[in-house]
Amino acid sequence: MSIIAVGSAKASPGVTSLSVGLGQSWEPTTGRPAVLVEADGDGGTLAARFGLASTPSLVELSGTARHELTISRLQASCQPLAGQLPALVAPGCGETTTRILSHLAKRLSDGLGHLDEIDAVIDVGRVRLDSPAAELIKGCDLLLLVVQPRFEQLVPLVHQARRVLSLEIPTALVCVGDRPYPPTEMAKASQLNLLGVMAHEPRVTEALVGGFPATQRHRRLLLWRTLTELVHRIHSRMEAAAGNREAA
Ligand SMILES: Nc1ncnc2c1ncn2[C@@H]1O[C@H](COP(=O)(O)OP(=O)(O)OP(=O)(O)O)[C@@H](O)[C@H]1O
Ligand SMILES: [Mg+2]
Questions:
Q1: Which of 95, 115, 147, 208 has its CA 20 to 30 A from that of 67?
Q2: What's this model's pTM, rounded to 2 decimal places?
């Protein structure tokens, strides 16, 4: 199991959209199934945005908290997003989500880590290392800090990058769009590795609601090409890390 946490330093740069897009592109690109977990302490948006029900959700999973996290318990709390991707949604209310995560996050992080047959993309919303979702961030294999390459997002990014790097959380930068600042400049200023760019796509939600394209022609759209490329790069990093662990 690889756990990829996706979060932001500030503003709303596209964390949820990127998480959904990575989750949808994961299995077609890597051959391994993925689950999308919504763990945004400000409350969930997946259910409302993608026409899912309010249950099952993190609430139902937290009801099984005394039991070991198995793939079937996880799947029983998920809903199919765009008919394809199992998604564990958060309640829309931030206070409720934060309360649930305060006793579920550590167990969820440990439990996901033990599920060999599936990888997880976790939308952690704004990265707050003193929040309950921090357990999921500290337990991840890779944290993606998402930013739009704009001047006002640079200073919060630089501060957040410093904090996560000081805690030795493996972190990479993903830019949503490549204007007005070059993503390489954002990476240089924040001292993060630039994983890549998710294409700026004004109709991103409509595209994601349709799910991963069934035809080659639609997969050639820039949005899906950039998402597939990001998944390739994450997967290569995970495989290299696993290889290094075996060699050690
Ligand atoms: N790749 C993209 N290209 C263009 N617009 C995008 C892209 N990704 C997201 N957006 C837009 O940015 C806005 C915020 O997107 P999203 O909800 O994914 O961000 P977020 O960082 O999760 O926000 P929040 O902090 O509210 O959870 C939405 O209007 C969405 O359509
Ligand atoms: Mg979000």
A1: 95
A2: 0.98
